[in-house]
Design a protein that fits this description.
There is one protein chain. The chain has three helices and eight strands. By secondary structure, the chain is of the alpha+beta class. The chain has a single domain, classed as Nucleoside Triphosphate Pyrophosphohydrolase (Alpha-Beta Complex), CATH 3.90.79.10. The strands form two sheets. The chain has a four-stranded mixed beta sheet with strand order 5-1-7-6, with helices on both faces. Strands 2, 3, 4 and 8 form a four-stranded antiparallel beta sheet that branches. A hairpin with a 2-residue loop joins strand 2 and strand 3.
Length: about 160
């Protein structure tokens, strides 16, 4: 019997301000790790909507995606796990900060790091995509938002 391969779809925010990038420090099975504000795409939302939601939930910053940095495929393996992730990474506009907002479960804090700090901390990255997304952003890689089309059926009742 054939088994259909189903990668996990994730969204990530590449947020730069004053030559620093907004990352999160989070608890994982591998210990405390650094990641872009990122997470799984939820039913009934576009990738851009999911990215804005994840950024707010994980950092308490409002974020509006304005360009697609890239689409990335990576595989995470350990003894009991083999997951392939399909990541949509967006850059955009940073909005208001909600100081009283509680961060998502597992998120220890949000922090601003320079590109060099991110490059020298790769052993603490949750995924190699943290660095790849930043480097692509710094190279000026941007794609228009309409390259990711979300059909209206996504927003329909289930």
């Amino acid at each position: 019997m054939d088994t259909r391969w189903k990668p996990s779809v994730t969204v990530a925010a590449v947020i730069e301000q004053n030559s620093r990038f907004l990352l999160v420090e989070e608890h994982t099975a591998e210990g405390l790790r650094l990641n872009n504000p990122a997470g799984h795409l939820d039913p009934g939302e576009s990738p851009a909507q999911g990215c804005a939601r994840e950024a707010l939930e994980e950092t308490a910053w409002h974020f509006t995606p304005t360009a697609l940095v890239g689409i990335y495929l990576s595989r995470f393996q350990r003894v009991d796990t083999d997951i392939t992730y399909l990541r949509f990474a967006f850059c955009g506009t940073l909005g208001a900060f909600e100081a009283q907002r509680t961060l998502d479960t597992g998120i220890v804090r949000a922090l601003w790091l320079t590109p060099d700090e991110i490059r020298t901390s790769t052993a603490r990255h949750r995924s190699p995509l943290v660095l790849q997304c930043m480097e692509d952003y710094l190279r000026g890689q941007r794609h228009p938002m309409d390259v990711v089309y979300t059909d209206a059926s996504i927003y329909g009742a289930r």
